[in-house]
Amino acid sequence: MAGFLRTLLPYLMMCFALNTPLLHAAPGAHGPDGEHLTTDSQQQRSLLPRFEAFSELFEVVGELQPHALVLHLHDYQSNRPLANAQIELETANLSSSAHYIADKNHYLIDDVALLDRLQQPGTHEMILTIISDDNADLLTASLDFAATDYADTAHHHHGHFPWWSLPFGLLMFVAGVLFGRRGAAK
After folding, report:
1. What is the pTM assigned to this prediction?
2. What span is annotated as the signal peptide, if there is one (predicted)?
3. Which of 19, 43, 86, 178 could be stapled to 39 by a disulfide with Cβ–Cβ 3.0 to 4.6 Å?
């Protein structure tokens, strides 16, 4: 068995040497948190349209989903989520109030007219009125919506594994076994 392994070792080393370039991070490789390492900042955006707004009191992150606008409200100083605040969003002569979803710890706007307006291509300027138990503030935000934002989510896939290396590796393994048996028969 040891002779077989000694005969097979050069072939295994050759397979490893030929596949070493595949081990390095290539464009599109992922970091420890799944982020793309070598993409430009334009590609690093969320798959859904988002906006952020903050002041000395509040921080709001909004994500436009197909059937709702989800808002995450935090205290700016402590970064703690704030529950049961009043949030009103105004844009293009439309306004709507958000309601708090306790089990998900976020706010939701599901006004059809407002969502239809926000899903039109272009930049949407918004004013958010926030009233909590202790404070109140006005925040401004911009939502950039491109018509392809939702279409891109369906086509986002990864094909990082070099499938061509499987038959090549199998071929090298079989060749190693055959040459190893031939060398052991002598």
Report:
1. 0.57
2. 1-25
3. 43
